Amino acid sequence: MSKTNHVQLIGNIGSDLMMHTTESGSLVLNFSLATNHVYTDVNGNKQKSTEWHSIVAFGKIAENINTYLKKGSKLLVLGHLQTRTFQDKKEVTHYRTEVVANDVLYLDAKV
Questions:
Q1: Does the pLDDT value for residue 3 go beyond 80?
Q2: What is the pTM of this model?
Q3: Which end of the chain is more exposed for a tag (fewer CB within 10 A), N or C?
Q4: Which 3 state secondary structure label does DSSP give 110?
Q5: Which domains does the chain carry?
Q6: Distance set, CA 74 to CA 24, 86, 102 (Å)
Q7: Where are the alpha helices (DSSP H) in the chain?
Q8: Where are the beta strands (DSSP E) in the chain?
Q9: What is the Cα–Cα distance from 104 to 15, expressed in whole angstroms?
């Protein structure tokens, strides 16, 4: 059976890249990716909406994105969805769904 939790996004990096290292020494990179959707509304007018995705990359993928790309860069992200659960200082539970980048393709001509 094929992998069912698969995400493929093409968009532009919409935030500064945030790289950090875990206690075990693994590289982790977080950033947002903006994707656009163009559609025709009920009145026949073209509309455009932007969706913001939280992306997380690890290891060599994280290192390469951080080295070669920046806010505004166009990128293809192949990955899967992951939902994390955490508690804030007031012990309120929060959920964060993000795309874990398994592979990327740089789409800017200058890279």
A1: no
A2: 0.86
A3: N
A4: coil
A5: 7-106 (2.40.50.140)
A6: 31, 31, 17
A7: 59-68
A8: 7-13, 18-21, 27-40, 46-58, 74-87, 93-106
A9: 17
- Give residue 3's Cα distance to chain centre: 19
CB-neighbour burial class of residue 99 (10 A; exposed 0-12, middle 13-18, buried 19+): buried
Using alpha carbons, select from 64, 59, 9, 3 the residue that is nearest to residue 32.
Answer: 9
Question: What does the alpha-carbon distance between residue 108 and residue 110 come to, in Å, rounded to a whole number?
Answer: 5
pLDDT tens digits along 88-102:
999 999 999 999 999
Percent of the chain with pLDDT over 90: 93
* Location of structure tokens 């059976």: 1
Using DSSP, state whether 85 is helix, strand or coil.
strand
Residues 35-56: tens digit of each pLDDT: 999 999 999 999 999 999 999 9
pLDDT of residue 1: 55
Beta bridge partners of 84: 96
Give the pLDDT of residue 4: 85
Residue 77 is which amino acid?
A: V
